Amino acid sequence: MKPPTRIAPLSGRVPNMPEHEAPPSAADFDSLNGVMSAYQSQLIFLQQENAQLHA
């Protein structure tokens, strides 16, 4: 499993930038994909644990 990457702010703004919405960058999507895959693997693990406990 690769180490967690630094998550960009949810607003998509970079500090010290003028107040306007920046379009999502590739790094934003990579961060989101990393979070989603970690969430999914944790969910699968918990479902397996739950199945064993109630077997």
Tell me the total number of β-strands: 0
What is the helix fraction of residues, given as a range?
40-55%
Q: CA-to-CA gap between the ends?
A: 29 Å
Per DSSP, the total helix count is 1
Low-confidence stretches are none
Task: Give the overall pLDDT as a whole number.
Answer: 81
Helix/strand structural class: mainly alpha
Q: Please state the overall shape, judged from the principal axes of the Cα atoms.
A: elongated
- Which sequence of SSEs, written as H and E, runs from N to C? H
Whole-number radius of gyration? 17 Å
Strand fraction equals: under 5%
For the biggest sheet, the summary is:
none
Would you mind describing this structure in some detail?
Residues 1-28 are annotated as: Disordered. This protein has 55 residues and is mostly helical. The protein is 51% helix and 0% strand. The two termini are 29 Å apart.
Describe the structure concisely for a colleague.
The chain has 1 helix and no strands. The chain has one helix spanning 26-53.
List keywords for this structure.
55 residues, 1 helix, 51% helix, mainly alpha
Layout of SSEs?
Blueprint: H1 26-53
